[in-house]
Design goal:
Strand 10 and strand 11 form a beta hairpin. The protein has an eight-stranded antiparallel sheet with strand order 13-12-9-10-11-14-18-16, with helices on both faces. Strands 3-2-1-4 form a four-stranded parallel sheet. A four-stranded antiparallel sheet has the order 5-8-6-7, sandwiched between helices. It has helices at about 10-15, 30-35, 40, 60-65, 85-95, 105-110, 110-120, 135-140, 170-180, 245-265, 295-305, 310-315, 350-355, 390-405; strands at about 1-5, 25-30, 50-55, 75-80, 130, 150, 160-165, 195-200, 205-215, 215-225, 235-240, 270-275, 280-290, 330-335, 340-345, 360-365, 370, 380-390, 410. Helices cover about 30% and strands about 25% of the residues.
């Protein structure tokens, strides 16, 4: 049996291919179960045995919140399925004497303030930062910096993250960031949102996905990122592997090893985001103690072969350490982010799927639908995944195929 901390339809779809039918217990907040119709949606996946209502987002008291969860008799692993399930997964794995992140490390990864302090103590390069509780705190930080980033310290998916320049009003920015809501994913038991501000760093953005066994990195991939310009730094594409100079790749892997030690991470997968200042010097942005989102794990599988999820299950189950080689080809995803307004015309995903190298093509809008301004990952309306022989080819193909899914809008 397997336990997932949180409901993820993408993870369950992948588990359907890897584990026996009726072998997964999904733990999720009662609020989320109701609003997202988790029981109905989970029932579509053969791997699911049952859904249990558990306050997995009560991170401040997670050990008592999960104390009533009964361990399945044949349990093999506890999997953090979503960002808000990372701490609960670590607590359960620790209580049940299974491999996992470790509760101390999971708390540091879920709270960017704790992560910043751990990285600072370890000498890891990162932006100057400060915790802020109101617009006055934010204004105090801005007196010495024209450009900065305001962000929640314990949320997900770029929600509430704002780039601020000298021309931006502090009170207005605080009002926007502090009003962020996530009713379909954030439960009433979750801790209050905390905020922080940090200096705006300039340089290419990448992420490192690492498989960690007993505190040692056994596999690492570097993903190149495309990020939207403007106020909201939403990711608009990913490329695996990132086409970087050998020395920069070496620095990133060394920084990742330092980060693993700094937070005390034990077993599992880490997804850490970095900015390459001057194009070559890694500075830590943030790190998640779970499989990467945005389908990056799929890109890794397409580029390297094998299954990162299968390797992850092996690590969490205490099975022999997986062996992985280098990339065999490249893979990329490009997201569709149209101009806000009412949709009047869309491309045809089925036609794009017939193109050479296209693995997936999807749109979530149709004529008559409304497109919101791009302020978080949830505002993207489609994507294309491609494979190619080289990173440069994959990137060009992904962008070209995404353009064929062009979503035309008119102002609302």
């Amino acid at each position: 049996m397997f336990v997932t901390s949180g409901f993820s339809k993408g993870l369950l779809a992948d588990l359907d291919k890897l584990v026996p039918a009726g072998s997964v217990v999904v733990l999720e907040e009662r609020d989320v179960i109701v609003v997202r119709e988790v029981e109905r949606r989970a029932a579509k996946h053969p791997c699911v045995a049952e859904v249990r209502a558990v306050p997995i987002q009560d991170e401040d008291a997670i050990e008592s919140a999960t104390a009533g969860v009964e361990r399945p008799s044949t349990l093999r692993a506890v999997i953090p399925a979503v960002e808000y399930g990372v701490v609960a997964a670590a607590a359960l794995a620790e209580r049940w004497c299974l491999p996992g992140a470790g509760l101390h490390a999971a708390r540091r990864l879920r709270d960017k303030r704790l992560l910043r302090r751990a990285a600072e103590a370890a000498g890891i390069s990162q932006p100057a930062w400060r915790e802020v509780r109101d617009a006055e705190d934010l204004a105090g930080f801005r007196t010495t910096r024209d450009a900065c980033v305001l962000k929640p310290a314990n949320r997900q998916a770029s929600l509430g993250v704002l780039r601020l320049g000298a021309e931006d009003d502090t009170v207005a920015a605080w009002t926007v960031a502090s009003a962020v809501e996530e009713p379909r994913a954030r439960a009433s038991s979750a801790p209050p949102t905390a905020y922080m501000v940090e200096e705006l760093l300039v340089g290419p953005e990448v992420s490192v996905e690492a498989l960690v066994v007993a505190g040692s990195v056994t596999f690492a991939n570097v993903t190149a990122k495309a990020v939207a310009e403007g106020r909201h730094p939403v990711e608009t594409g990913h490329l695996v592997p990132a086409p970087l100079p050998t020395e920069v790749g070496r620095r990133l892997r060394a920084a990742m090893t330092s980060l693993v030690r700094a937070v005390g991470f034990r077993d599992g997968v880490l997804h850490a985001e970095w900015i390459l200042v001057d194009g070559s010097r890694p500075h830590l942005v943030e790190c998640a103690g779970r499989l990467p989102g945005d389908g990056i794990d799929t890109l890794i599988d397409l580029a390297y072969g094998g299954s990162l999820l299968a390797d992850y299950l092996a690590v969490l189950g205490g099975e022999p350490r997986p062996e992985r080689g280098g990339p065999l080809r490249a893979a990329a995803v490009a997201y569709v982010c149209p101009v806000p307004g009412t949709v009047v015309r869309v491309g045809e995903p089925s036609a794009v799927l017939r193109r050479d190298g296209v693995v997936a093509a999807e749109l979530t809008v149709a004529p008559g639908d409304k497109v919101q301004p791009l302020s978080s990952s949830w505002d993207r309306v489609g994507h294309v995944v491609v494979v190619a022989e080289t990173p440069q080819g994959a990137l060009a193909d992904a962008r070209a195929r995404a353009a064929e899914l062009a979503v035309e809008t008119v102002p609302r």
